[in-house]
Amino acid sequence: MRLVSLAERGKVGKWRWGWLGLSLGVALYFGGVTLGYLWRYPYIVQDDARQHVVFLQQLVDAGLFANDWIAEYFTTVAPVGYKLLYMVAAKLGIAPLEFAKVLPLLLSLVTTVYLFGVCWQLLPIPLTGFLSTLILNQQLWLNDDLVSATPRAFVYPIFVAFLYYLLRQSLLACLVTIVLQGLFFPQLVLVQMIVLLLRLWRWPNRPSQRWGMRLGWLARLGWQGSESKADYQFAFWGLLTAGLVLLPYALTVTKFGGAITVEQMRMMPEYGLQGRNEYFGVSGWQFWLLGNSGIRVPVFPSIILAGCALPMLRRSQWPLMAAVSEQIKLLGQVLLASLILYGAAHLLLLKLHFPSRYTYHTLRIILAIAAAIVLTVLLDAGWRWLRYKQRIQSRLTNQDRGFLALIAFLTAVVIVVPALPFLFLRFQGWVIGEAPSLYQYLAAQPQSTLVASLDPEASNLPAFTQRSTLMGREFALPHHPIYYQQFQQRVIDLIGAQYSLDSSVPSQFIEQYDINFFLIGRSAFTPAYLNQDWLIHSSFQDLVRQVAQQLEQGRQPVLLQTIPKCQVAASEKLILLDAVCVQQF
User: What is the C-alpha to C-alpha distance for residues 189 and 181, in angstroms, rounded to an integer?
Assistant: First the structure.
């Protein structure tokens, strides 16, 4: 039975829903295993959720993180729709950190349904829809975007829904996806806008008609307007909607001011080689392919790269390519729109945020679709070859059997290996708490408790104790100067207090910031401890080096001497000191 006949059967729904069920099963498998993993640990949080989700706990208890500069910053810069969704969940009695655990599975299921629908519009073969959802789910669950339950997790269901309704020519639904994108991840609204504009552009292959007007010099370049009235309607209403959605972002000025400028970035070690937000100083190929500056083509699981072969297949005579809709050009339009904005983001650095935002997510979506089509075409060709072999010879040769065995093995590898829990869970960026007794002690303290620490564990305290920390590596984002200047001053003051040889300095620091506890790493008074990237590659790196030199000379800070008397809780790697005791030392 050829795949083309499957398409014919699928049109009447006989095969379609079964393959959609299998597709949903893939999402349920990855999501179910992930949920089971989370429920094994009492203290676990996703890496980026420490920035974007934890401080939303204020929605269930307004007393949490009150007067917390870090919490105020991250809740202020969070998109409106994102905060509203968590607020609704909180009203229903679901705390943000708990909601963030189940949300990725829900988003994955929505993405799966819409992606299957997109593929059905492009190549109405159920197997193609299944392959695309399998490949994209592998990408989603073997990365940390979806599982973070942060704004970028919403890119996938919303953008895929945009593609679906655009293909279905459902204007109102398409406009809704533009609004939702603006409420959750506004940068991608720009991609949607460019896609709608590109749909007005086609290479002429016949004389233009009513809606195919030529525009001056563009005509000489081979440009011709679309002949579809719907394309102009979608572009007009889509651009109008996008403009209205983005207008508040353009007009709103928060207390944290505007984004950092390129000139400021170049002067800051934080954006330099090995810095906390590495951007400049990397090699050429790294700059253009990896990190915040790169296109970031997905490379694992590698089956997605099969999508790169689609342009070549389109020019070939493969039988099944005739069944591919002309609307496949939408993938190219999304790619071109993403690359245009990628280039614009480089030219207007940080005014449009980091360049990779415009290619990282969209490439995964369009390559998953393209790869599914390529694989379907190849499977159809393989099936035709096998039937041909059976007709001209009574049995397959050993070489033929070996080839089929290799294909079966590779298929199993592509499906099974990425689905191994020990593998895909490693890519999701979970942070597991290793100091439960210390967390319990701090959680029992008043909600106004403030902890000062340079230790990496400081980034986990808001998640595991619901108490504020004066700073932490995870919160050291220099994108907004007003925020980072105060953050930086806090770090400088803490370094001065923690490593001072004068007992009055820690006391003054405690009074200045109203500190309740110091969290000290057991290796905090060794030079190597200060080699943390956010410290040694920072605008205050001279101070860090000076303190490291002091420690190399064996000069003991006052805070080290207070440990025997002021320790109130401890773990294998950490010591918690009472600030009042330190002040009285």
Answer: 6
What are the structure tokens assigned to 21, written together?
A: 């069920």
3-class DSSP state for residue 225?
strand
DSSP-derived 3-state class of residue 202: strand
Beta bridge partners of 454: none
**pLDDT score, position 368:** 98
Residues in the chain: 585
Distance of CA 540 to the CA centre of its chain: 29
pLDDT of residue 338: 98
Query: How many angstroms separate the CA atoms of 169 and 214, rounded?
Result: 24
User: Percentage helix, strand, coil, to 5, in the chain?
Assistant: 65, 5, 30
Amino acid found at 40: R
Helix and strand totals (H; E) in the chain:
28, 9
Maximum alpha-carbon separation in the chain: 95
Q: Where are the domains of the chain?
A: 11-252+283-425, 434-584
Structure tokens at 62: 């307004």
Q: Mapping DSSP to helix (H, G, I), strand (E, B) and coil, where does residue 562 land?
A: coil
Q: Measuring CA to CA, which residue among 128, 140, 182 is closest to residue 34?
A: 140
At residue 411, the pLDDT reads 83
For 434-584, the fitting CATH number among 1.25.10, 3.40.50, 3.40.1000, 1.20.272 is 3.40.50
User: Residue 295 half-sphere exposure, CB side, CA atoms within 13 Å?
Assistant: 16
Nearby residues of 302 by Cβ (< 8 Å), 6 or more positions away: none
Task: Pick out the chain residues at pLDDT < 50.
Answer: 1, 4-7, 9-10, 12, 206-215, 217-218
Are the CB atoms for 449 and 468 separated by under 8 Å?
yes
Residue 184 and residue 79 in contact, taking contact as beta carbons nearer than 8 Å: yes
- Please give the structure tokens belonging to residue 487: 């953050």
Instruction: Return the pLDDT at 206.
Output: 47
Q: In the prediction, which pLDDT does 3 show? A: 54
